[in-house]
Amino acid sequence: MNPLHFSALWLANQLHVEQPARWSSWARRLFVLPRRTQAWLPLTAAQVPDPLRWLARQLQLAPGASPQQWLLALFLRPDPSGRQDGMRLENLLAAVLRPMLQALAWMWGGVWLLLRPLLLLLSWPIRMAMRGAERVAARIDSDAFGRQADTLLHPLFAIPGMRWAVLGAGAAVTAVVMTTPLSWAGQLLFLTVIWLLSLVLRKLPGRFPSLALSTLSLMAMGRYAWWRMNNTLQFDSALEAALGYGLLAAEAYTWLIVILGFIQTAWPLQRKPAPLSGPPSSWPTVDVFIPTYNEPLSVVRPTVLAAMALDWPEDKLKVYILDDGRRDEFRDFANQLGVGYICRTDNRHAKAGNLNHALAQTDGELVAIFDCDHIPTRSFLKTAGGWFQRDPLCAMLQTPHHFFSPDPFERNLGTFRRIPNEGALFYGLIQDGNDFWNATFFCGSCAVLRRGPLMEVGGIAVETVTEDAHTALKLHAKGYNTAYINETQAAGLATESLSAHIGQRIRWARGMAQIFRLDNPFLKAGLSLWQRICYANAMLHFFFGLPRLVFLTAPMAYLFFELHIINTNALLLMLYVLPYILQTNIANAHVQGKFRHTFWAEVYETVLAWYIALPTTVALLSPRHGKFNVTAKGGLVTHTYFDWAISRPYMVLVLLNIAAFFAGVWRLAYANSDEPLTVLLNMVWTAYSIFMLGTALGVATESKQVRRMHRVASDLPATLYLPTGHVLSASCTDFSMSGLGLQAPSGLALEAGSSLDVGLWFEERECVFPARVIACHASGAVGLEFGTLSKPQQIQLVQCTFARPAAWREWSDEHDTDKPMQGLYELGALGLHGYRKFWHSLNAELRNARQSLFTSLKSMP
């Protein structure tokens, strides 16, 4: 007897399944408690013959009670003093739900205990294969292979037309692999071979393994797409056809994005800064623009101070505050510091109009633009300026957007500095890939533009609400070059709330859809093929709203209504879709893992899908509809709360998916026992959606954020100058513009409120600042608040903290390593935690409703 047969017989014996058994018998035993365990439950069917009478007894209601008495009894319970102020419904629900949940936990725990040995047995060949692949990969010197390949291929590719010939031959071979029909055994062999090859390649560093993994992924995807379009579109009704083709369209969208994404990131350029040439007197003049509209001065102040301290000849640097809010406080602040102040009488074209108004009043050869919360490092202009000297056609150079405060995903899910944030993939990999194709996007901040080309295209684009990307498109169409240096040279504030974050993404999505409609990169003259692909992928990416909603609801067609929107055998579907999903995830983990962990793209899309689906659709139909909205920065979240308004779509989707899952349980046990794999496949798909939606609910639970000045974790040398004349060495553990956290020798006793001086270092010079003690602990942890600082001290403080050239260089080193299976487990845990937070918030709302109901009932006659 083989091990699989033996395990099946053992499991059947444990579940009391008679042999031979139908799938329905197995399902009933797996999902329905055996009769002998029903006695363990507090409530059995025999004990509850009439739910209403049982409920009346629990509520201590007499027969014929009035509706008002039912309401009072449901929501209120008398306390010993006779007043009705408790909530009976909570206890009642707990009394009913707790045994049910305990029974479910017991059932699933028992099933897992029974299935675990079988799963371990079945997974043994897979684990052995993975270990063998790792041993093979350890013996391969990928660097030496890469050097040999370069030596052999470089002279070959130097032959005119050879690159295109090789690309064409490779495409032809790939097309043959994609379209060759195979039996189920052949497809299983294909899956196994490319999976084993990927296990070896994923352990090898370098670009060639990445290209090979991407190619294998495209082959697997191509085979699935070809099979899907030729073998699964036979429908029995018009409704099935409509839903089936809708799902196919959503899948086709993902195939297109995968292909364009692999091309876009095929060869990240990883450009380095170019050294400046000539004496400083020959360097170009620079105007620094800091646009602001409604942000508080506390947010703008550090950016202006850091801009004043940029390492550039003083006579060639001018800093301007562009105040679209027309505030006297900002005018006075600019006059106090001696920087330029520009405002206008209207807010026409929002940020783009503000920048264009300033361009007309200034004359610097280069223009550096910073959002008002983005604090540049001292080395910013020296890092960026060299490429404008080296390349006369360089019209724009972009550096990354970096955020020293957590965005709503990071704060509400507790992943700050552990998991790369939403923008890390774009600034860490995609922009480097764009740079290879001379298609770097202007991102509105942390960038330098050459005035001449900018004015040639009419200044900052005003036709769409994503004026930055549209401006870059115009510059590329005119034949100018752009550059990207992947070194963080400025840092700013992330959005404080999920609603603000979604509002910002809605603007980006609408703007990209507007460009796609008004200035389509596929039709615009002057662009290369590769530039068109890079721009098209960036724009099409924001159309994920409708496809993601389709994926979140597609299994319901079968689980609710038994509609076959993919008309094929479930086992065959798995043999084709598994290589596609598996290979795409392996390739993405290898190429993108440092910048976006596996499965996290689906978290972001799940949260945003509902909100960007309509704006992108409207922008396609009416591209001039909508207006620019400013992203609020510097706000506070004074208390933890659940955002009921923003989470309504998630709650609806959660309820639908949970209902669909239990419909699947019923089908597996009773209605569709002849299609067990089809039911199980749809249930697994639904369960995955439930966990993703739980994570979305977790993001919607806003965590408290009460610091107006964000503290940045650090490890900087510091010195304490005590009033007694003693000098102590310390370490700065965090800093902001308002204070410091220090780690001093343990046992240090400082009185709260006492004054002292603290020294920080800028390059080789110590800067001393007055401060006041806020807290001092026996462990040596000291909290300081700065006193009144002079203008030079304010600039020095920024130089010692936010504007240090290496301030953000090692920021991402603390990120966890991307491990797909571990990441999937963590996302599942985050999903469950999201439901737990939602339940607590719901209880709080019920308590508030109870109080309102109590007041209303008491006032009734």
TrEMBL record:
UniProt pathway: Glycan metabolism; bacterial cellulose biosynthesis
Record key words, sorted: c-di-GMP, Cell inner membrane, Cell membrane, Cellulose biosynthesis, Glycosyltransferase, Membrane, Transferase, Transmembrane, Transmembrane helix
TM ranges: 103-122, 156-178, 184-201, 208-227, 242-263, 533-551, 557-578, 650-670, 682-701
Entry EC number(s): 2.4.1.12
Location of the PilZ domain: 705-802
CDD domains per UniProt: CESA_CelA_like (cd06421)
Function: Catalytic subunit of cellulose synthase. It polymerizes uridine 5'-diphosphate glucose to cellulose.
Protein name: Cellulose synthase catalytic subunit [UDP-forming]
Organism ancestry: Bacteria, Pseudomonadati, Pseudomonadota, Betaproteobacteria, Burkholderiales
Gene that produces this protein: bcsA
